[in-house]
Amino acid sequence: MTDQGETGETVTILLVEDDAPTCWRLQDALVKAAYEVRTAGSLGEARSALAAGAPRVLLTDLRLPDGHGVELIRETRRRFPDTEIMVISALGDEESVISAITVGATGYLLKDAFPTDIATTVRDLVAGHSPISASIARFIVRRTQNSAEPPPGPVLNTAKLTPREIDILWGIAKGFSYAEIASHLGLSRQTVPGHIKNIYRKLEVHTRSEAVFEAVQQGLIKL
Amino acid sequence: MSEIAAKAPTRTRRRPFVSRLVPYLLLQALIVIATILGLRLLQPSDPEDFALSGFSLREDGTTRAVTLPHFTSSRYSLADPPLYAGTFTFRSGDAGWSVFLPRFSNAVEVAVNGVVVLDSRRDANANRQDRNTPQIAAIPSSLLHDGSNAITVRLFVWGPLKGFLDTVYVGPDAALRPAFETRTLLFVTLPVVFSAWQSILAVILAIMWLMRRHEPVYAVLAVAMVLGVVQAFVSPPVPPATPSRLAAVLLASAPTESALIVVFSVLFFGWRWPRYGALLFAPGLIVFVVGLIAGPPLPRILFLVLGIPTVGVCLLLMACVTAAAVVRRQDAASFTIGCAVTIVLTCWVHDMLSVFEIMPNERTFLSRLSYSAMLVAIGAGLTWRFARALNQVDSFAGQLVARVREAEERLKASFAREEARARAAALANERTRLMRDLHDGLGGQLISIVALSERGQEGATITDAARAALKDLRLVIDSMDDIGGDLMLALGSWRERAAMQLRPHDIALDWRVATPQGLPLHPELRPWHVIQIVRILDEAVTNAVKHAAARHIAVTIETHDDGQGPYGVISIADDGKGFALADEGMSQTARGLRNMRSRAARCGALLDLTSDASGVRVRLQLPQVFPDSDAAAG
Description:
The complex is a heterodimer.
Chain A: E1 12-16, H1 20-32, E2 36-40, H2 43-52, E3 57-61, E4 63-64, E5 67-68, H3 69-79, E6 84-89, H4 94-102, E7 107-110, H5 115-126, H6 134-144, H7 163-173, H8 178-185, H9 191-203, H10 208-217
Parallel strand pairs in A: 1-2, 1-3, 3-6, 6-7
Antiparallel strand pairs in A: 4-5
Helix pairs in contact in A: 1-5, 4-6, 6-7, 7-8
Chain B: H1 2-42, E1 51-52, E2 54-59, E3 62-67, E4 70-72, E5 83-90, E6 97-101, E7 104-105, E8 107-112, E9 115-119, E10 135-138, E11 147-156, E12 163-165, E13 168-172, H2 173-211, H3 216-233, H4 245-251, H5 254-268, H6 282-293, H7 298-329, H8 332-355, H9 367-454, H10 460-480, H11 487-502, E14 508-513, H12 527-548, E15 552-561, E16 566-574, H13 588-602, E17 606-612, E18 615-621
Parallel strand pairs in B: 14-15
Antiparallel strand pairs in B: 1-13, 2-3, 2-5, 4-12, 5-11, 6-10, 6-13, 7-12, 8-9, 8-11, 15-16, 16-18, 17-18
């Protein structure tokens, strides 16, 4: 299985994981799939690795010994918009995955996934498909329903989602396949992954300073 | 010792009584003095320059010189009225002379130089004894000549009081009129104003009584007020005009009116009306009956003898009642009415002194006029009482609101407690179930990992056990999520896990949902139901992987409705070699099957398992309503 980009260049991956066995396991799976993998065990190492150049894919754990992976994701998204960012999650818990999505992650990977699944997920991500699980879809859809008191967890700007996107999320939450969702909604099967990527992008919140910067750039605010 | 103890309470009871009564009585004495002084000060002054007091009186055929003011004897026949004759000096050049009579009773006819210029009998109200109506008349200039002019005054008296003629004034109209107008204002206009006020009070009281029938006090007072108004506005008959008997009787209603006022005060201060109290109405009734039966002058004599003392007695009773009320209640209403009674009583005594000629100069009756003080006091007292009642209603309403709020708070608190207890109980139940679940699944798997690693085992077995543990952990975490009764949401996650489990074994998972909506919603669905169902499905898939050597596993989700409400059916079919159900109870598969059955029973589902050479088919029929309690747990 060769998982190269369309240009034929080697896909570079920066893997940030502080637990050595997990790191080895993921690295093995990725190297076996012919990816070029650099590893970092901490936020600091990851930053210096990023300084050397942008990887095609950033795979990062959230709980790092010297900081939170969310910081790394935010920085990477800002500095290298073309880099695909994926969170490594132990249990696929929605809260941490979604807080990563809100700062720029577009996918997640379970630490115990089978090696072939690890490689497939990265390949799909590079190809422009974001993986999403039923429980994460459920989590996002719940946030689109206005409840009296905000549920605990990260703030999600779900107002931007279109009804179609919400329908797709519902379908995923209920275990329908992309094909089934597409046929229920009258879509082509290929458009569903694109919608999911869009959903991820829409959920990304910009930091306040970025919003101010953007406003100044667009001439909305005069300093 | 005991003597002192026995005396102590009476003394303490008497002391406030005395300490309240004495200042009150002193104050009333002050009011009496103030009233007398006030009457003196308010005495209308007449233009003394034009006073005529020297007259010759021809009475009963004899003529003698008299000085005005003068009383004549009481008489009932108008055939030969006393004639006062006098003279006054007129200087030509003075324009517009008038004759002014400040006070007389009962009626006068004034003639100047033999020509009648004034006859008060035409003005019926001028002839009432209790009004102190003045009269003025312009003397036509043609009648007057320089020097001495003759004036005669015929005084008509119809008893029972003596006839009275105050000083007569003759002079320029401009000099006399201010005095006349002052008297008119005091004794004519002011009583009309008070009567109007009294009639308004009567209407208000009548409405009060109509709205509050259980308070006769208002009705009594309203009747008294109506009597007073009628009395004020009824025209008295003037002899020799044919007297209307009813009018005469109504004029004599004062004792009835005052008796009613006594009744009012007794009721107003919350006393019980004594049985013999009705006697108070007897004089008024007697005057009334006699007045209807016999013609004058009998009713008038009776009124003088019975009526006026009754008024005095009533006033005294009122004074006592109000004094007692002041001592007992010490409220503004009783105090105001008490002071008003004192004023009226003082004026009544003044009138009596006037009648008995102890105060000879004046025959100005003030009782009627001072009665207005009482009206004001009663109006004020009623208003005070009304306002206080409103305040009481307000405070009562406030208390009610506060009490309701208190009760509400208590209810809320108890409700919150109850809710918290229920929540705690539910949480404890959930925790117990979860613990049992974790013990059965995750705990066992971790122990098996420990055992395997201690035996130095490596590779697949430990990996499988650890994966199973992780899968179980995900299952428990997933089932704890709020899925709002939509089992499809739990099945969606399960599908992902099953697909992940099957992928390394190259087993295809065919997932078919018969309806786009999936399964019916179950609001009563709880996490532990979800765990049981997902475990059953897990077991079915695990069996297919481990024992059946299947290549495909088909999961079908359908909704059926046999008329009693929809229910879901989940079927899992594999294309493996099946297994013999006969060896149940021996193998691990058999234990797994037993577990599946008991889990299905716990959440009210029906499990149907068939196995043949073409594969195993598990059919799980969900209940229409999931059971609340874990009845089949044992």
